[in-house]
Sequence to fold (448 residues):
Amino acid sequence: MIMQLNNKNNAVIVYQSNSLHGAIRTPSDKSISHRALILGALCLGETTIKNLLLSEDVINTAEALRQFGANININKDAECKISGIGIGGLLQPEKNIYLGNSGTSARLLIGLMSSCEVLVKFEGDESLSNRPMNRVLSPLQKVGLEILEDNDRKLPLTLRGATMPVPIYHHLTIPSAQVKTALILSALNISGTSTIIEPIKTRDHTENLLKLFDADIIINKNSDGDDVIKINGLVKLSPQKIDIPGDPSSAAFFVVAGLIMPNSVLKITNVMTNPTRAHFIDVLNRMGANIKIAKTYSKCGEDVCDLEVTSSELKGIIITKEEAPSLIDEFLILSVAAAYAKGASRFCGLSELRVKESNRFEAIINMLSSSGVSCRNVGDDIVIDGKGEVIGGSEIKTNLDHRTAMASFILGLNAHNKIRIDDISPINTSFPGFTQLYTQIGGIYKSE
Fold:
């Protein structure tokens, strides 16, 4: 069913629940949904996408691509058919492109238009308009992207794509899958070979999808062990029929829920296990989690599995800064696991959390500290002193961040006192249906 956008404040009270039981099908992956839409729009011919995630962020990407000239139809069963415009075929949008709260949409679409002769004004909501875009703008200026309205490198931004784009040679100094993907999308419309060097591997869905769509992309290692990604531009992409796998970042919330609630057993199906996305399972296993893989299969060139999660006594853990890039979307829910664990946990190298949908570094500390959990920062690290229980009695501000809202729900599952969440409407940007699943397995909350 196609989701209706909800921008109203929606406060809830979360109560301590009983044991959790049932089966949950993980919603489709948001990262792959964005990328599949974009690559489908760059094909000549019809691409079919099954199980597209019908979240606000993904819908905003689809609408932007329509403004660039793609014909996109999405039915009630989340099947999407795209009649593309071809490489370099972007049309001049007739109006400003509004992207809501989606930083992924913004950064990827800036990359897409940077090597095409179009003039675009990108706009977003209050949260997105406070997020920095310089990491993607600076390397794309070397391609020929012009910034006509700067606004301190934040949205709203007015940009003109390059008339004669030059091949990219860029060394990623800060791990970022979004910046990498923006550069790759730009390179698709540039004559010649573009090179991107990635010292620390980030999620590689763009590279995997490009191989499915018959792009000319080669990935090797250099003498330092870095990934060297080479893209030959102006190569025709082939339309595909693809099925989007489940989002591991969404599954993580219910995995932790099943672990922290006594006498609970959950089956969570359709979980993508791409190594750059599912590292949180390894982390939880190190904490003592009882997580079993019940079945494995593949979708869209990605490994997928079904999980059986049983309540467990968790222990504290150290997560190194080298692990941080592959856990960037899971630290909020991992902080909940650490709060219910026994012993100290230390999450290292979390500076990137400060520039997500909200300042998630502060969000973790505020969420846990206000709920009676000892939590502090040491530079870019967060230290959580888990006592195996959470007092609760807190009021948590989501600051328009979907993951803060969902993590707060899970925190409240076994807290001794109720937890108030000021606004859960941002959840629709990534996980429509979250609250229904929450109550389906035994979670208790009520709307104010």
User: Anything to note?
Assistant: Residues 248-260 form the longest helix (13 residues). The longest strand covers residues 290-299. Residues 1-7 have pLDDT under 50 and may be disordered.
